[in-house]
Amino acid sequence: MEDRVVIITGGGTGIGRAAALLFAETGAWVLVVGRRAGPLEETAADSDRIVPLAADISDEAEIERVVQTAIERWGRIDVLANNAGAFVQRPLEQIDAQTVTSLFATNILGPTLLTRAALPSLKTAKGSVINISSTFGHKASPMISHYAASKAALEHLTRCWALELAPFGVRVNAVAPGPTETDILERSGMSAATIEQLKKEEAGRVPLGRRGNPEEVASWIVKLAEPEAGWITGQVISVDGGLGIV
Question: What's the mean pLDDT in 143-149?
Answer without folding.
Answer: 96
